[in-house]
Design goal:
The chain is built from five helices and ten strands; from the N terminus they run αααααββββββββββ. The protein is of the alpha+beta class. It has two domains: about 60 residues, 434 Repressor (Amino-terminal Domain) (Orthogonal Bundle); about 100 residues, Jelly Rolls, CATH 2.60.120.10. The strands form two sheets. The protein has a six-stranded antiparallel β-sheet, with no helix packed on it. β6 and β7 form a beta hairpin. α1 crosses α3 and α2 packs across α4.
Length: about 190
Amino acid sequence: MTDCPPLIGKNIQKLRVARNLTLNVLSERSGVSKAMLSQIESDKVNPTVATVWKIARGLGVDLQDLLNTDPAAKRTFMVNPTSTETMPKLEAMENGVLIKVLSPLSMVEDLEMYMLTFPPNSSLPSEPHFEGTQEFLTIIKGQVNVKAGDNSADLKKGDFLIYHCDIEHTITNTSSQIAVVHMVVRYPNQK
């Protein structure tokens, strides 16, 4: 099998630390032993591409992200097409609320973006997400009430709210008009 370029261990370590993962957690997620991960990160061994592929999956990144040893910072510029010819429609109805997914599927359980359209007097209750997960709401139109655990807030157009959603939480349109909410869900670094 082909060996990987030098300095790949530093890329792996940098991405692992940025995601707040221990060697034990990365070992569980990748199927690569903790001892081997430690040796790779310290550039004591040169892993095969197959091993690096397992580590990339454990980190939730593309293989190329680990193989690129160019010290210049990579810049992201990605378009998520919304036309129905190039991408399936990512919309769902839940309790009468239209939930439109705006972010690409590759960002699931990392950073997700939604546009929520609430009919008059409708609610969207949610079970707790992963511990440490937060939601960021911007009210685009109308007014809503957000309840997360013991906290509650009445919001109107232009208001912004951040809250932990690792507890039961509910967004309710409290008016007789349509409400539109932009929601970002940020998960803790678990990948």
